[in-house]
Amino acid sequence: MNDVEQRLTTLILAAGKGTRMQSDLAKVLHPLHNRPMIQYVVATAMAIRSDRIVVIVGHQTEDVRRALKSYPVIFAEQKDQLGTGHAVMQAVPFLEGADDNMLVLAGDTPLLTAATLKKFVFEHHRLQAAVSILTAKMNEPAGLGRIIRTKEGQIIRIVEEKDATDEEREIKEINTSTYCFHTPLLMEALKKIKPMNKQGEYYLTDTIGILRDQGDRIEGIIATDPDETIGINTLAHLATAEAWIDARKKDGSHLSVI
Fold it and tell me: Of these residues, 20, 65, 149, 212, which one is catalytic?
């Protein structure tokens, strides 16, 4: 159990269909070394001693539930796919009155290690941030949200590539879709986000600008190994992830949850 002042809820976003996987199978159920990738994410959340794990389900809800039947998780359902912010809103009934911190993980990022997430959460506590964002430097950031900073290095906001200007698309620092929020501040910020984007969706990333505008502390923590942070969006990404795990097994530094 974490210390009282450092209680941690981990929220895992696992509601998406994953159309780019060219399969009828929900993205998070695609096998990675013969295990559904969502199991890696949940097992890592357990390894960092999360006090509570909430999984947001949507597409093929019952199949995802079955894949996690032996794991100590709570499920919240996102019936309509209206964005990441909307997904987190579905967990609000489980979070009312909580005064802890909340780690948000994407269900399609199975390579993040417990060591990386422990360090990330530790830095979030140390810096006393309202929200910390795990970022990565990518040589080829196409398709990924970009981190927008001031000249002094302070994060202003995150912009999705589809909404980015040509200049913003040149930025190499990307959002890994991994966050740590102070839960009460997130609950208030969620009430203020609006679907003012080309997709008509509620972006969780919009809470970053809201928190910044009200004077709260925003921190960006760069991942040591950017390869850990890749999201599995295509079958090619899945093959890359399998090769990454194989390489780690050979050098003795493989994922602790395998």
Answer: 20
Does residue 187 sit in helix, strand or coil? helix
CA distance 109 to 241: 10
The Cα–Cα gap between 132 and 139 comes to 23
Q: Note the pLDDT tens digit of each residue in 130-147.
A: 999 999 999 989 889 999
Burial (CB < 10 A; 0-12, 13-18, 19+), residue 69, is exposed
Determine the pLDDT at residue 63: 95
Q: What residue type is 257 in one-letter code? A: V
Domains of the chain: 4-244 (3.90.550.10)
Residue closest to 247 by CA, chosen among 225, 220, 219, 223:
225
107: DSSP letter: T
Cα Dmax for the chain: 48
What is the SS3 assignment for 26?
A: coil
Task: Give the residue-averaged pLDDT of 201-205.
Answer: 92
| 126 tagged catalytic | no
Report how far apart, in Å, the C-alpha atoms of 220 and of each of 10, 123, 209 are: 19, 10, 13
